[in-house]
Amino acid sequence: MMNSKTTYIAALVLIVIGMLLPDMGLAQSDKSLVRKGNKDFSNGAYNEAEINYRKALDKNPMSSTAQFNLGDAMYAQEDYEKAAEVFSKSNMEKKTASEKSEIYYNYGNSLLKAGKLNESIEAYKQALRANPDNEEARYNLEYARQKSQQDQNKDQNKDQDKKDQDKQDQNKDQQDQNKNQQDQKDQQDQNKDQQQQDQQQQNEQQQQDQQKNQQGQQNEQQSQKISKKDAERMLEALKNNEKKTLEKLKKAKKKNAKVIKSEKDW
Question: Does 1.25.40 match the CATH number of domain 1-76?
């Protein structure tokens, strides 16, 4: 038969066990979800794995394993920005140097895939600071540096190409402007030449008209001269004819006069 002291201790033990049982169930619950997520991940069911890892974190937000594996699941689904965000929230406390290096390495990979080169370079550096023997991090760091340099060179080339293109466009605009000015000048010269030609033709026409007028006047004067001579000739001819006519009349009168006289004698 238990004494009162023993009964008190037994009751206390039962209370402690009752308090620990929920935590033990919680730990087992999140770990079982992580194991289930790992199985899904191995089978390529990355979305299902993500769901189980998130459930595990709901059960135990401090589960670094669930957090790390969730980042891997997001990375496998090519959601690199979300993966980087998950890795960045990893709790580094109580992590070994090797574990920290792996977290930073995966974080750098996610940033690299997301196109954030400078941030990925810093993540790889953190991975190497935690574990200088992480050769994969060293390799990816060099790759990220080279790609960053290539992108910078590419951007510089683009800028230079843009400057060259702008310069070519300016030169073309200047050439077009010069051409327009030359075309205007050519048109003006052409108009001037046409005006000169028209003026020359007008002068020539005026000269021809003057020559025609002069020729016409000369012809008219000549005609007048000829007409005057003809008139004089005609007048002379009339005079001659008139003389002849008068003589005929005189003769006719004489004849008539004789006839009349003979009649009177009768």
Answer: yes
